[in-house]
Amino acid sequence: MIDYFALALGHGLLAIALLRLVMREGLDDDPLIAAITSETADNRKAVSIAGRNAARRSKTGGDGVDESDPPPDA
Questions:
Q1: Are the C-beta atoms of residues 53 and 64 closer than 8 Å to each other?
Q2: Which one of 16, 46, 47, 74 has the fewest CB atoms closer than 10 angstroms to its CB?
């Protein structure tokens, strides 16, 4: 005959362990994803600034600096 107490105890402990793993705070925190996201944002900002400067140079025909333009943000 199957010992129901042993089955319940084993499965209960497995269920508790699973719940503790799922409810962990850092389960979905991956530092690599955060680094990739910030790097992508920096690249987009750099490309955006470079694209605006190139468009301004081609539009003005010069070096892209116009006295009426505010200084670029660093």
A1: yes
A2: 74
How many domains is the chain partitioned into structurally? Answer: 1
d(CA 36, CA 1): 56
Q: Classify residue 70: in a domain, yes or no.
A: no
What is the C-alpha to C-alpha distance for residues 28 and 68, in angstroms, rounded to an integer? 48
Residue 47 · residue 53 · CB < 8 Å: no
Residues 6+ apart with CB under 8 A from 27: 21
pTM of the predicted structure, to 2 decimals: 0.39
The proportion of the chain whose per-residue pLDDT surpasses 90, expressed as a percent, equals 27
End-to-end distance of the chain based on CA atoms, in angstroms?
77
* Residue ranges making up the domain that contains 37: 4-60
Q: Whats the size of the chain, residue-wise?
A: 74
